[in-house]
C-alpha cells in the first residue's frame, strides 16, 4: 500500500477572492477567538460557521477541512514572533524565545499542536529564516546552525509548555496562586521529609514567594545560560 501523499493548506493553490462573503482572514481570526475562549475541543466547522453567521459553503471555499483550518490558525499564532532583520544572533534568539513564550501564553491551546502541526506558513517560516540567518552571520557553520536553532526552540517550548499547563490547571481549580500554594505546601513538605535536599529548598522559600515571578526569572536564567553556552561554540 502506498503512503498517503503529504498535503497542506500551504501547498495547494489558493482560490481567488469572492466579491461577497467571508474572507480567509476573517475566518482565521474568528477561529482564533473561538479557540482562545473555549479551547481546542470546542473548534468545529459547524460552530465556527455559526459564530460567523455563515454556512459551511463559505468556510469550505477557503479551507478544505478542519486540519487546514488548524494550519492557518497556528500560523496566526506565529504572527507575533517577529524577529528583526539583520539582528545579531543573541538578540534574534532572545526575541524569538520571549515572543514564542508569550504567543503560547496568549493562546494556550496551541501548546498541544506545536510539533504536531507542521509550521509551513509564512509567519513560521519567516521567523525560522531570520533566526537561521542570525546564527549563520554569527559564524555557526553546517549542522551546528541546526543544532543552535533546535537548542533555542527546544528550551523555549520545554520551559513554556509545562508552565502553560500549570496555569491552565490553576484556572480550572478556581483557586488563586496563594490558595493553591497553601494547599500544596504541607503535602510537599510531608512527602519530602526523607529527601533532605528538596526539604531544605522548600523550607528556604520565603512566605511571600511568588511562583509566577519565580517562573519568569527561571526562564530568563535558563535562556541566558543557554545563550552563554552557544557563545562558547564560536570561540
From TrEMBL:
Residues 44-63 bind DNA. This is TetR family transcriptional regulator. Residues 21-81 form the HTH tetR-type domain. The lineage of its organism: Bacteria, Bacillati, Actinomycetota, Actinomycetes, Streptosporangiales. Keywords: DNA-binding, Repressor, Transcription, Transcription regulation. PROSITE patterns: HTH_TETR_1, HTH_TETR_2. Transmembrane segments: none annotated.
